[in-house]
Amino acid sequence: MKLYSIVTAGLLILLISSCEKDVLTQLPVERTDLSDIFNPKDKEGVLIDEYLTGIYAQLPRGFNRIGNNLLDAGTDDALSGDISVTAVDKFKTGQWGPSDLPENPWTSSYSAIRRVNVLLENIGKSGIPQAKKETISYQARALRSIFYFELMKRWGGVPLIGDKVFVLNDNLQLPRNSRNECVDYILSECEFLKDKLSPTLAANELGRVSRGAIMALKSRLLLYEASPLYNPTNIVSKWEAAAKAADDLIKLNNYSLEVNFGTMFTTRSNKEFILAYQQADNTSIESLNEPPGYKRAGQGITNPTQNLADAFPMLNGKAINEAGSGYNAADPYKNRDPRFYLTIFHNGFSWLGSPIETFIGGKNNIRIGLGSGTKTGYYMRKFMTTSGTAAGFSNATHNFPIFRYAELLLNYAEAQNEVLASPDASVYKAINDIRKRGGSTGVFAVGSLDKDQMRAIIRNERRIELAFEEHRFWDIRRWKIAENVLNGTLKGMKIVKNADQTLTYDPNAAVQTVTFDVAKMYLYPVPYVEIQKNSALVQNQGWN
Question: Per the database record, which ranges form the RagB/SusD domain (predicted)?
Answer without folding.
Answer: 279-543
